[in-house]
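lol forgot to send this yesterday, sorry. struct tokens for the thing we talked abt
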């Protein structure tokens, strides 16, 4: 039985705040970015294990969440609500 990896467990070591054009935005660390690329390559080669599939889904969910947060931050900085 595989256990779902909570995306929140990736935050402490997987995310950093980066200053871009006077905005503090969330970005993946190099380590998490590299892991994501490795998993995507394995998916493309159809060689992901079930645990890696869950890990990829968790990283993808985290990416969606923080992409949304970054978009809201950028929109508010540009006067959009």
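and heres what i got for the seq, position by position
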């Amino acid at each position: 039985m595989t256990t779902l990896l909570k995306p929140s467990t990736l935050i402490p070591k997987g995310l950093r705040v980066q200053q871009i054009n006077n905005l503090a935005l969330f970005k993946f660390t190099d380590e998490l970015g590299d892991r994501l690329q490795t998993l995507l390559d394995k998916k493309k080669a159809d060689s992901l294990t079930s645990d890696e599939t869950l890990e990829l889904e968790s990283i993808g969910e985290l990416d969606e969440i923080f992409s949304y947060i970054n978009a809201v931050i950028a929109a508010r900085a540009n006067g959009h609500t």
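The chain has three helices and two strands. anyway ping me if u want another try
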